[in-house]
Amino acid sequence: MPVCDDNKLFEALTLEGAQAGLSWSTILRKREGYRCAFDGFDIKKVARFRQTKVEKLLLDSGIVRNRLKVESTVNNAKSIIAIQKDYGSFYTLIWSFVNGRPLQPRRKHANAVPSTTALSHHISSVLKKRGFRFVGPTICYAFMQAVGLVNDHETSCYRYEQLKDR
């Protein structure tokens, strides 16, 4: 489903980055732990986390206790705030990559879904230049799928039809 809320976009980007190198089911099981640990993905609150909070989070079994991933979440919150100042919202930047309308690639089979695209490479590059971390092209493509920038449901799936005209 298309996501238009900066905090929800931040959550999706964080969870996609946390998933790197792990199974998606692991992250889904820890989703509530992430919401609790990162104050409901309130961007302004997370951007104010200090090193003492990061150290405390590294002891929290409700999230993936990887220093780089935890620190990247705080860093990415700060980067989103900078984007909000420049664009009015993170949503405005993210959706500008698809001109405000989800891509509709019409996949007939799940094995036709790529792990990256030229656009995910471009988004990754833009976000990295803006200071984001854990936003490689594969993470960005998964993020694009999660927030509705691309409708990768198979054309035979009922969700494809529900989302094709959004």
3D structure, described in words:
With 166 residues, this protein is mainly α. The protein has helices spanning 6-19, 24-29, 31-37, 43-47, 51-57, 67-87, 90-96, 118-129, 137-146, 158-163. The chain has one domain: Hypothetical protein, domain 2 (Endonuclease III, domain 1), CATH 1.10.340. The longest helix has 21 residues, at 67-87.
Give the beta-strand count. Answer: 0
Low-confidence spans: none
Q: What structural class do the secondary elements suggest?
A: mainly alpha
CATH superfamily placement? Hypothetical protein, domain 2
Helix content: 55-70%
- Tally of individual helices: 10
Shape: globular
**What's the architecture in CATH terms?**
Orthogonal Bundle
The Cα radius of gyration reads 16 Å
> How many domains make up the 3D coordinates?
1
Class, according to the CATH hierarchy? Mainly Alpha
State the distance separating the first and last CA atoms.
9 Å
**Mean pLDDT over the residues:** 93
Please describe the topology of this protein.
Elements: H1 6-19, H2 24-29, H3 31-37, H4 43-47, H5 51-57, H6 67-87, H7 90-96, H8 118-129, H9 137-146, H10 158-163
Helix pairs in contact: 1-6, 1-9, 8-9
Relevant terms:
single chain; about 170 residues; mainly alpha; about 0% strand; Endonuclease III, domain 1
Provide a brief overview of the structure.
The chain is an all-alpha fold and 166 residues long. It has ten helices and no strands.
